[in-house]
Specification:
Blueprint lengths: L1 H32 L1 H4 L17 H4 L2 H10 L1 E7 L2 E7 L7 H12 L12 H6 L3
Antiparallel strand pairs: 1-2
Bound molecules: heme C (HEC).
Heme C binds next to α2, α4, β1, β2 and α5.
């Protein structure tokens, strides 16, 4: 039983470490590839670029986030009572790891604290 508990602790410690490292890499990638539009604080620019902080979108499954990065998005959306009708170009030139890292960073920043972890494998599985 003690061994089992130790094993479990070791696994969750490893996952925790992997997530922390991913978030740290994601911060740098976000600054390079997302920040121009969504801003350093994730709040976007009202009416132009939607925020990534405490929005309905952020509550969606990780797959929805992967899809927006791989395919981009356009059309009318309402985010936190503000309307956006703009174009986000696909960011599919990013590597699977960069995309997973950016997602983990945004889901754990600026007051966002969402369960689950994006992995390069999951991103790769959604490319076609
Ligand atoms: C050139 C500007 C630009 C860049 C760069 C950009 N985005 Fe966007 N993003 C937008 C716009 C504009 C929208 C909204 C499009 C619309 O009106 O439907 C959007 C939408 C989104 C959404 C959906 C939000 C919602 O509530 O529906 C997410 C998530 C997102 N972007 C994340 C990212 C991430 C992560 C990156 C970096 C990999 C990134 N974006 C790079 C402009 C950009």
């Amino acid at each position: 039983m003690a061994l089992l508990t130790l094993g479990f602790l070791a696994v969750s410690f490893q996952q925790d470490k992997a997530l922390k490292e991913s978030i740290a890499r994601g911060k740098e990638a976000y600054a390079l590839y997302c920040q121009n539009c969504h801003m350093e604080n994730g709040k976007g620019q009202e009416g132009m670029f939607p925020p990534l902080v405490k929005t309905d979108f952020m509550q969606k499954p990780i797959e929805a986030f992967v899809s927006v990065i791989l395919k981009g998005q356009q059309g009318t959306i309402t985010v936190n009572d503000v309307e956006y009708n703009n174009v986000m170009p696909a960011q599919d030139y990013l590597t699977n790891e960069q995309i997973a890292d950016i997602i983990n960073y945004t889901r754990n920043s600026w007051g966002n604290k969402l369960k689950g972890m994006a992995t390069p494998d999951k991103v790769n599985g959604m490319r076609n």
